[in-house]
Design a protein that fits this description.
homodimer, about 400 residues, alpha/beta, Alpha-Beta Plaits, eight-stranded mixed β-sheet, about 25% strand
């Protein structure tokens, strides 16, 4: 069987950790598996290079930042190859270019155009473990980088291109949990979860897997496993198609997102198209508007509530300037959290939302905004009640069992 | 005029030093010069990578060491380009491959095969300052490195390939001195020196320029300037063809080499070819034998003295095992120094050697071995008298004037 294994910065941090990773690969090779490893830069290295560049220029040129930052992954790929060769396992490091990864020329946040995996396939055929430097590609004879979570993307794209049986994403946590174990001590590790549930969980704050790589895995039909390089004997969490999940739980997990701001626009004069104007202006500025609630009053005015990411708050305020005279006032509340209940089984079960509202009411937690999709219920509540809310929801759905 | 500027690890060490280097380039650009810069890894980085690799493997595979080590020069080239772009000077970093440098596939000590400088020439034509990562090339789709002093070699080879007017080698010293200023306080900086004198000086211990790059500069007729990036207003030392040096001094400088061992083989049975056998065995083992003296005794036996580099001592002892029964005894003396007097004018002046012997005799320094060439006299003396010998020689030839 052919496996793509991706090792993050913590897994590659230092000689001992690299040896540990080499042993994981060795075990698979001894089973007769083909292995391609994709590696991140050693923990902390990328930030070191960024701060070096920032000490030289306040706005370092993007094209050169890519050459600079790509070096971290090249270093860790050659170190892992040195380690494997030392253990008697044939291995070869490959840069993004050598692995055939071409991208668009959008430096610092390039998109993979295509992968020519012939070089990689030949190495696999010749019995090599190929170690691909993650996070990077090539365009117009220059190195490009893929932005945040780029190494996960590299791994998934390669797994799709060589039709690997599985893509294992190694980090320092054992997999995906029913809730953040730091908040809910009796949170349970999930054995499996669907791409769509994972997308809801990762975009909502479960930081183990980036949304972009889960989306790509879904598109390319790549089976993902999230697991820990420090406890390689635990099974991790499999992320796969809905059809492959035999027993679909009603609720799989509870996620929180503390990095949202609620924007309230009160007593908007309710002329046609005003909401459309507001949201197209925000969209044009690249602001990711999430939950929206509109309340039409009896006096012919409307209240509008929505959330935006905390990082976009200044940009949002700029956009809203234009609409200040069309309403009574606008306020911005950063002291909120978004708590979400995610589960495939919601599609076929009723009463899931009612249980959630009841659980929060029983804990004296007010819900400010509610939004729902086929497989999730999201609620905006006061930030200082977020932990209590997650625990209450975890309990009501008996996720520890 | 077109200049190739090479900046060593100390010149590139840290943000402030990189800004300093960028200012040197800026001054030339403002004069209307074309500039290609060749850079080493930031001071200490290469050693850090080597010790990381050694903590993973006692004998790291050469092919991967090249990928690993080449990253240091890529980092410094992109940082310098970031700095120049920030100052409004168009610049682009180029890896060895991007600069068109192909080598043989002798990893860790590759030789430059050829340079396809079309890419580089186009950037120069378009007004860019190209920043080439030194020390590296490309062979069979893999990175290669050129070994010690590799960045100097890159600079000289590029200067030859684009027919630059000059190749300036920047370090933390102001140029080539008549003797090591730490030993001889009144040593003087030389304004100019011939390739051949420089070769004698550099192979004898003046560590500013590596022999390989001086040899290549001589072959490609590249004018070298050795100068300091920390005092860019001082003129440095020009290394050029003998014909360009108008006033040829009798003695240019005094060099010492403390890393030699004298091997003495006493009372060898003087059968034909024994010396030839010894030296061909040493040559076959890759040991660089330097000075040789043979003394034939009246009893039909011979004494043989020669020097080898201290790093080759164990290998030499292995080779000599075979000859132990053919002589009375063999001894190895590490407490020696080689002191050399170098100067073009020796070709046409007599009495230079006599002055040297007299100077040492007046200081009670015994000479164990002497060897001479057209432009140099080398003498083996006791190591603890080396400093006194250099000062005495410096004085007798009035090199401070």
């Amino acid at each position: 069987m052919t496996r793509v294994l991706k090792f993050g910065g913590t897994s590659m941090g230092g000689a001992d950790n690299i040896k540990n990773v080499a042993n994981i690969i060795k075990n698979y090779k001894q089973n007769g598996d083909n292995v391609v490893a994709v590696v991140s830069a050693m923990g902390g290295e990328t930030n070191k290079l960024i701060s070096l560049a920032n000490s030289i220029s306040k706005d370092p040129i993007a094209l050169e930042m890519d050459t600079l930052l790509s070096s971290g992954e090249r270093v860790s790929s050659s170190l892992l190859s040195i380690c494997l060769n030392d253990m008697g396992i044939k291995a070869i490091s490959l840069s993004g270019r050598q692995a055939g990864i071409t991208t668009d020329d959008n430096h610092n946040k390039a998109k993979i155009d295509k992968i020519n995996s012939s070089n990689l396939q030949q190495y696999i055929k010749d019995g090599y473990t190929a170690i691909v430097a993650g996070f990077q590609g090539f365009a117009n004879n220059r190195v490009t980088t893929l932005g945040r979570g780029g190494s996960d993307l590299t791994a998934v794209a390669i797994a799709g291109s060589i039709q690997a049986d599985v893509c294992e994403i190694y980090t320092d946590v054992q997999g995906i949990y029913t809730a953040d174990p730091r908040v809910v001590p009796n949170a349970k590790k999930l054995e499996q979860i669907s791409y769509d549930e994972m997308l809801e969980l990762s975009s909502l704050g479960a930081k183990v897997l980036q949304s972009r790589s889960v989306e790509l895995a879904k598109k390319l039909d790549v089976k993902l496993i999230s697991r820990s390089s420090f406890e390689p004997n635990t099974t991790g969490t499999t992320i796969t198609k809905e059809e492959n999940i035999v027993e679909q739980p009603i609720v799989s997990g509870i996620a929180t997102d503390d990095d949202q701001v609620r924007v309230g626009i009160y007593k908007v004069i309710d002329r046609p198209g005003i909401a459309g104007q507001i949201f197209s202006k925000l969209a044009f500025a690249g602001i990711n508007v999430d939950m929206i609630v509109q309340t039409v009053g009896t006096d012919g005015t409307t209240d509008l509530d929505f959330t935006v990411p905390t990082v976009s708050i200044n940009e949002t305020k700029k956009c809203m300037k234009k609409f200040e005279h069309e309403c009574k006032y606008i306020d911005y509340n950063e002291k909120i959290s978004k708590v979400s209940v995610v589960g495939l089984g919601m599609k076929s079960h009723t009463g899931v939302a009612a249980d959630a509202f009841m659980a929060l009411a029983n804990n004296n937690i007010n819900i400010r905004i509610i939004s729902t999709s086929e497989i999730k219920i999201s609620m905006i509540i006061d930030k200082d009640k977020s932990k209590r809310a997650v625990q209450a929801l975890h309990d009501i759905y008996k996720l520890d069992q």
